[in-house]
Amino acid sequence: MGEYQTLLVKTTGELTTDVIDVGVVNSLMQDWWLESKSGFRNNAVEIIFKAFLFILILLIAKALALLVTKMLESSFQSSRAQKSQLLEHMLHAWTNRIIMFMGLLIALAQVGVSLGPVLAGLGVAGFIIGFALQDTLGNFASGVMILIYRPFDEGDLSKRPECLAKCHE
């Protein structure tokens, strides 16, 4: 009877309380373990190559992110325009994160993960989070506009003692 229940669960894929008992679960777990071991033995080289490729692509993305960050830093230093330290830090961090995220997506695509559903899920999550954090994102956008058009910098009040005197009056 246990073999029949095991076969029924394997063919239908449905787990119901009237079919499952301890012997069936034990048999299913043993079959799964044997199939996993044989699958790994048959595909070990491919699995190891895909893991190596995944790590290699992430390392290349990290190196590219560092290179772009250095280029961004040198362009900020050579620029004569008035710039904010906070804006510089924010651009460095976001550039690094975006390049690493793109590297992660490329690495996932190379190891066989379908990116269509992943990107659709990220789009839906972004839509939901955008509506949930509408006010917060508005404040963030206002802060970015202040950084771009009126650069307030780190330690501005400590550089101008006259501002401190006016603020405490």
| Relative strand content | under 5%
Helical content stands at over 70%
Q: Which shape, going by the Cα principal axes?
A: elongated
Mean pLDDT: 81
> Sheet with the most strands?
none
Structural class: mainly alpha
Number of helices: 7
Give the number of DSSP strands.
0
**Rg estimate, integer Å:** 28 Å
Question: Could you please describe the fold and organization of this structure?
Answer:
Helices cover 82% and strands 0% of the residues. The chain is elongated. The protein has a domain at 116-169. It is mostly helical and 169 residues long.
What brief labels describe this structure?
mainly alpha; 7 helices; 169 residues; 0% strand; elongated
Topology, please?
Layout: H1 2-12, H2 22-78, H3 85-110, H4 115-132, H5 134-149, H6 156-159, H7 161-167
Helix pairs in contact: 1-2, 2-3
Summarize the structure.
This protein is mainly α. Helices cover 82% and strands 0% of the residues. The protein has a domain of 54 residues.
